[in-house]
Every structure is written in structure tokens, then in C-alpha cells.
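Comment on this:
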Amino acid sequence: MKALVTGANGFTGSHLVKALEQRGDTVVGLVRETSDLSRLAGCQVQLVHGDITDRTALQTAMLGVDVVFHTAAYVELGLVDAAKMERINVEGTRAVLETAKAAGVSKLVYCSTIGVYGDTKGQVIDETFQRQQADFSSAYDSTKYKAQQLVDQFAAEGLPVVSVMPSGIFGAEDPHFGPVLQTFLNGRLKVWAGGDRMTGIVHVDDLVAAMLLAVEKAAPGSHYIISTGDLSTREMFEFLSQETGIPVPREVPEPIVRLAGNLLDPIGRLLSWQPPISRERVHYVYDRCVRVDGSKARRELGWQPRSVEQTLRDCLRIEN
């Protein structure tokens, strides 16, 4: 099989490239000229340079390709460039879909997010859930929802595209939880916020396995939630503490966190600085709860992910 991976140098994309190469597949990777390629060290991937909205680069990248994996995205909460996020996440997805349709690829797997379902208010939902949140919690939330609408539109028009909706992705070189875990292991994480916040968890290699299964078994137009389970922040740190003997970080009272978010948000905007806590991040910690059931992927694709506990143990092994 010859496969194209957009965002090949990213967290998910690089793990996918390695898995495809290990299977003996030929891999093409779309990356920007300025991309950090350190995650692809040792890989044989054929690189095509171009922006995700560059149709000429996409056409070149898709020459002779059987399957396209679209993982490229601008993922960030807090103070973001909303226009840039719209261009990458929405218009970039449109460009990938249109080019894939013209190229006649046999399957396109789109890496979406459980965020497209919006705030479920703690209700555990599956792929049949219809979004009830009328507004959007962030530019990321909005742009990924719009991109998913495009994907579903192209699927209805006959493009063989499958959507996977991962929850929080953990694993080697995780740019989000990885630094937090390293700070915890170094004994420098003394405080944390939002102990009751639920986080869905999936190991990046299990997400990759689901994407590969989707190529083989998923019907065009189908959606699959990819999540092993979830834990509250408090439960997560209690588990990590049990495994390492490092004390659980102290929880900062909610009013103080909200005040900090309100104070740091305008300072960050003034200084073009991403503060550790902002109004948007506070909202995600305290006011929004998305919980999902990933059993459809197990049932229909034969997906067999590691447990939440094993995922966290593997992360500890990597960071140590």
C-alpha cells in the first residue's frame, strides 16, 4: 500500500508513519518547509513540502497513493490565531478532500476529535449523539466541527472517507500531557487545577492501530470514537502517585484559578504570550465535560487498545 500522511512530522502523524513503514508500506509525508522533522528521524518517508491548503503540493503528494491519512491540524487552546486555525483546520481539510476526490484515492481516514460532539455535560455518549451545545467553546472546537461537517458532506457525495474521533492522546513525544508528566516526575509539579475534570485517554499507538483498522474494515462515511476510557485529573494523579511514590499535586481552589485566568488572559493578549491559564482553559477545566464510549471501534473494527492504566504506565516508562 502507498499512503499519504498529512502532518507527518506531528505527534500522531509521526507514529502513524512509523507504523506504516513497519508494515512495509510506502509512505509519503506532507510537511511544511519549516517543519521540525526530528520525530521522523530514521524514517524512509518520502517528503513533499507544502502548506495543507496548497493544492499543487497535495496533488504531488497524492500521485499513485492508495490511502490518505489526514492528521494535520492546528491544535491549541487559550490565545490562538483564530484566522490561521480556520485556514489550517477547515480550508486545509477542504483542500485535502477535494484533491483526494480528484485523485480517486481508495480510502481517506480523517483524524477528527471527540470535541465535535460539544459539551455532553458529563453524559457518556457514542457516535449516534447529536451535538446539543449551540455555541463553541474555542476556536479549535469551532474549526474542527466545521471540518467534520465538510468531511460528512464529501462522504455523502461518495468520497470513501472515514472519521476517527480520538479523545486525549497520550504517548511518546506527547506535546500536551508529556511536559506536565515530566514536571511531575521531576518533583516540580506542586499544584494543579480542576481535580474533577474528566479526561478521555487513548495511547497514540492504539489510535494509529484504529486508523489502520479503519482502512481495512470501516464503511465509507462511518465515525469511530477512539477512547480507552477516562479518568478525572485527581484520579490520574493519584494513580501516578501510587506508581511512582511522588506526592499528588495540591489542588488550587477554583476561585483562585478563575481569577488567575481572568487576569492573565488580557496580559497574554497584550504581550502575545500564551499564559499557563486563560479564560478558555478555565472553561475547559471547569465548565465543559465531554465523555465518550469507544466500544463501537472494538465491536466493528476489532480494535483492542491497552487499558487506561497501562497507557499511563507506558507514559511513565517513556518519560523515565
